[in-house]
Write a sequence for this structure.
């Protein structure tokens, strides 16, 4: 499966979806002009990945900021991860936030209440 | 209020009842994605240089993004007084006092949308913190994105993050449009 890599911009995050290297990451800022278009590529890749996922998928979120429109699409990604788990494969979400960013940590905790997959929390610095 | 003053005149008249210590940003024009990015970055950098509390900066940044994207998505086009009011046009005023930042926005919506928006905002204003969190999660789970990318979450999240009630006014015009004035405070930590 061909890896997907989207370089970050000032309003869109870095996206790495790489099955061969077992790396799944979204990081940075997300407030795209066309949020549906931006995440379509990501969701398409994930929907393809669901068919033959790894034995264990560790998905890392390292967000600095996301707007409410992006929050909906992030939930869509998490729901695809939930689907993978339902197929009997292991899934883990690494939710990382800046040390000073309590709101971002809480956003992760809220997601964890909405989907039935394990979350681990950590901090990162710039 | 005198409607001949236009978008910014309206904000200015409203603001004169809520004078803060310092006006940081005042704008009247098309609120494009580029304008939104420029203003939010400008304000973020200014506040960082003033060593404002990081949570306060993040929350103000978020309120500005959501407010400006609302205008960008929802401001309607109207023809009146022989002039075209462009979609996406709006006005913004950002001011600062020792205890808070204030964001005021103004844009045109259809009069037919007023009752629904008023009911929505009233409802959110009256929710407790716990109810707000539940409402946010419910909307996130059950809501769908509009073709314009609206998730129906902006005002709910503004209310959650500012911890203040949202103040708003509608000013009817003769052409079936209504000015929507929105006024919210971000408490400084």
């Amino acid at each position: 499966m061909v890896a997907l890599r989207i370089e970050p911009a000032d309003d869109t995050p870095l996206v790495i979806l790489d099955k061969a290297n077992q790396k799944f990451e979204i990081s940075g800022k997300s407030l795209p002009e066309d949020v549906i278009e931006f995440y379509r590529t990501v969701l398409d890749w994930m929907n393809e990945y669901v068919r033959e996922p790894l034995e264990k998928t560790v998905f890392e979120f390292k967000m600095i900021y996301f707007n409410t429109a992006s929050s909906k699409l992030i939930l869509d990604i998490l729901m695809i991860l939930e689907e993978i788990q339902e197929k009997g494969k292991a899934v883990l979400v690494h939710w990382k936030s800046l040390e000073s960013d309590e709101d971002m940590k809480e956003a992760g905790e809220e997601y964890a209440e909405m989907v039935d997959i394990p979350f681990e929390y950590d901090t990162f610095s710039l | 209020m005198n409607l001949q003053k236009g978008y910014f005149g309206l904000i200015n008249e409203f603001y004169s009842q809520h004078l803060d210590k310092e006006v940081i940003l005042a704008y009247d024009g098309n609120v494009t994605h580029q304008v939104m990015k420029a203003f939010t970055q400008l304000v973020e950098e200014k506040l960082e240089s003033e060593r404002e509390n990081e949570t306060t900066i993040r929350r103000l940044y978020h309120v500005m993004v959501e407010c400006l994207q609302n205008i960008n998505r929802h401001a309607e086009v109207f023809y009146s007084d022989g002039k075209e009011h462009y979609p996406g046009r709006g006005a913004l005023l950002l001011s600062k006092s020792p205890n808070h930042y204030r964001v005021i926005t103004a844009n045109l919506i259809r009069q037919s949308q007023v009752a629904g928006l008023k009911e929505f905002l009233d409802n959110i204003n009256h929710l407790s913190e716990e109810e707000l969190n539940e409402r946010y999660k419910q909307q996130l789970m059950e809501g769908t994105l509009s073709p314009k990318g609206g998730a129906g979450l902006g005002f709910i999240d503004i209310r959650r993050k500012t911890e203040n009630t949202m103040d708003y006014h509608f000013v009817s015009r003769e052409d079936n449009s209504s000015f929507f004035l929105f006024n919210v405070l971000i408490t400084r930590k």
